[in-house]
Amino acid sequence: MSSRHPSRGRHERGRRRARAVRLPPGATARSRAARSADRRDLVLTVELYVAAARHPALRAVTQTWMARSRQALERRFDAATARGLDALIEGLTLHHALSTDPMTPAQLRHAIHRFLR
Fold first, then answer.
1. CATH for 91
2. Is residue 75 part of a domain?
3. CA angle, 103 as apex, 89 and 16 as ends, to 5°?
């Protein structure tokens, strides 16, 4: 580790760990969908969340969606990690949809990799 850059070694270890974590193709699907989906799809997704929050009967739809997402994540992660990662991805998706300065794909990947450390 260089004395000029004491944090360089820590960052390099983090990059190696991030490269070592291989996310399954579906792990960031909703984040990628948020980046590439048209505005109408994003608005409909947010409206579904709001409607489900107001009308318990609609929660079955969001519960089914979340359960499928977690099942896909559980192919690679334990149940607790899958649940947390699913919530992180949901939050990142909402932030992306509502932000006037959305995170870049690299920032999204970094957030997910940090969670998985």
1. 1.10.357.10
2. yes
3. 75
pLDDT tens digits, 92-117 = 888 887 888 988 889 988 988 898 88
Distances (CA, A) of 35 to 30, 41, 93, 95, 102: 9, 11, 8, 11, 9
Region of residue 24 (left: phi > 0; alpha: psi -120 to 50; beta: else): beta
Whole-model pTM above 0.85?
A: no
Domain contains 50? yes
In a domain, 2, yes or no: no
Spatial neighbors of 85 by CB under 8 A, at least 6 apart, are 27, 73, 77, 112, 115, 116
Q: For residues 68 and 74, give the distance between their C-alpha atoms in angstroms, rounded to a whole number.
A: 10
> Would 70 be classed as within a structural domain?
yes
Domains in the chain, number: 1
